[in-house]
Amino acid sequence: MQALADFQTTEYAQMRRCRMAHLHGEMIDECFGDDQESVTVNGYVHSIRPDLTCWPMRWSITVETYSRAELSLALAG
Question: Which residues, other chains included, contact 47 with Cβ-Cβ below 8 Å and sequence gap of 6+?
């Protein structure tokens, strides 16, 4: 079963890639976090919300995550 997960980013280019994937209904394969604690996420973007109270700008991205095993089963069928 897929789960919704929230991630935050301050990188404009990463937010832009997620927004374009959301608009076109494509899956993302993004790495969120810094070098020591990074998380690779596969799935569909559900929402992108800006946090207007901080600088640099921060975005909260909600993703319906999929594991690698679920992706390989979905592509095989």
Answer: 22, 60, 61, 62
Q: Calculate the average pLDDT of the chain.
A: 86
Q: What angle do CA 13, 23, 39 make, to 5 degrees?
A: 50
Unique residue bearing structure tokens 């640099």: 56
Separation of alpha carbons 70 and 44, rounded Å: 13
CA distances from 67 to 47, 58, 71 (A): 20, 26, 6
Nearest to residue 41, comparing CAs of 65, 60, 17, 22?
Answer: 65
Q: How do 27-32 and 3-9 pair as beta strands?
A: unpaired
Query: Does pTM top 0.70 for this prediction?
Result: yes
